[in-house]
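Q: Convert this sequence to structure tokens.
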Amino acid sequence: MRGWRIDRAVMRAAARDALAVFGEGRGVDPDALVRDLAVARQQMVEIARAVAARVLVMDEPTAALDDAECERLFGIVVRLKERGTAVVYITDPMREIARLADRVTVLKDGQVSAAWDHVPPADEIIAAMVGRALGAYFPPGAAAGEVGAALLSVPTGGNQQKVIVARWLAMAPRVLVFVEPTRGIDVNTKAGIYAIMRDLARRGGAVMLVS
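A:
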């Protein structure tokens, strides 16, 4: 636009200041193109854009991250909290809740199922997530076929995983290889998949878990 000029030096300095939240040596080059960055670095850019905000909402931020990247993200969240930023962190892995939360709210079917002003034991959180104790979904003596049927009948996320697991169970396999089977799925489906693994092992089957 005529009469306007982009001051790239000022923009670069502002970007560098925003990216400083990630700590010395862990930031992102202000001159880098976002399309050339790894997923974890792209998330850093997204967070940096919101650093000046008083409230930051993070929805399943670790879904595509490996363990080292998760640890880096956890450090960022802690630093943001120390700077006075309110972080609404949406997740279901218990380790993330225990690590980061000050208070916990569970939403189920669009309603508040439970809320605490502290971090309660994991079994209380899970019970609020699924609406009942996990044992009510998957009794100790349930066979793999029964669990597979339960997986398909419970209306939760992870539909692709449920269909794949149920298909292989129908073939009565002696060996099952699970590669990141619980990534991106809810606690109901995770419980069912873990129950399948345990049942197959009890029956003499071989289970290989890659995670």
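Residues 8-130 form a domain with the Rossmann fold fold (CATH 3.40.50.300).
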